């Protein structure tokens, strides 16, 4: 949990999306398409890797990068087409407890924002079916800006757009690199592990109520 600085009140809370608000696992899609465990392991380690996917999050054109990957790894065209057309299947559901925290913050009129490493097309498809983000004042999407976390420029851009000083915002992310980048840019931070730990931090900051305890008869 982040250390609370009582002299630095939080004016706004800024969320990451993947693995903070929604579950994300690219292997989930390809496990449906590749039956052999050893081949699946090789494919995820060499072809559709998170590092390669990050290039699309950072704004690289989807058609160009898939075509280049097909040339580099011939014989995997159908699987690479699935990456381009079935990305929604890599999102199995919400992170337990996180959406409830967002709604409680919104009910207390805490300004909410997000910074997400998300490809533009994939984001538009996902966002269209998720009304939770109607509660957010603004969302900085890496694919739109062609800048991805932890690049300090994305935190500078977000601060300008959100209209709050970095030190007055709490940034929540599961990535140690992104947390370090935000901290270096002057933001207050919470390294996300699970919703109960986040709730405890937000409660200590006076932003949210504590989780109700279960009474015993």
From TrEMBL:
Top-level taxon of origin: Bacteria
GO MF, one annotated term: hydrolase activity
Keywords: Hydrolase
NCBIfam families: HAD-SF-IA-v3
Protein's name according to its UniProt entry: Hydrolase
Species: Novosphingobium barchaimii LL02
């Amino acid at each position: 949990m982040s250390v609370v600085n009582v002299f630095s009140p939080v004016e706004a809370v800024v969320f990451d999306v993947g693995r903070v608000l929604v579950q994300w696992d690219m292997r989930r899609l390809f496990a449906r398409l590749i039956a052999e465990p050893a081949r699946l392991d090789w494919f995820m380690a060499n072809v559709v890797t998170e590092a390669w996917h990050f290039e699309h999050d950072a704004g690289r054109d989807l058609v160009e990068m898939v075509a280049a990957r097909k040339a580099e790894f011939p014989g995997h065209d159908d699987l690479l087409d699935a990456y381009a057309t079935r990305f929604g299947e890599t999102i199995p559901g919400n992170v337990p407890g996180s959406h409830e925290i967002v709604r409680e913050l919104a009910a207390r009129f805490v300004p909410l924002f997000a910074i997400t490493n998300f490809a533009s097309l994939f984001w538009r498809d996902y966002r269209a079916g998720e009304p939770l983000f109607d509660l957010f004042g603004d969302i900085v999407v890496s694919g739109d800006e062609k800048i991805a976390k932890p690049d300090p420029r994305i935190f500078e851009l977000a601060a300008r757009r959100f209209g709050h000083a970095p030190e007055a915002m709490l940034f929540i992310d599961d990535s140690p690199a992104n947390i370090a980048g935000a901290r270096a840019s002057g933001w207050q931070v919470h390294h996300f592990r699970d919703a109960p730990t986040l709730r405890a931090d937000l409660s200590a900051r006076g932003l949210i109520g504590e989780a109700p305890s279960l009474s015993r008869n």
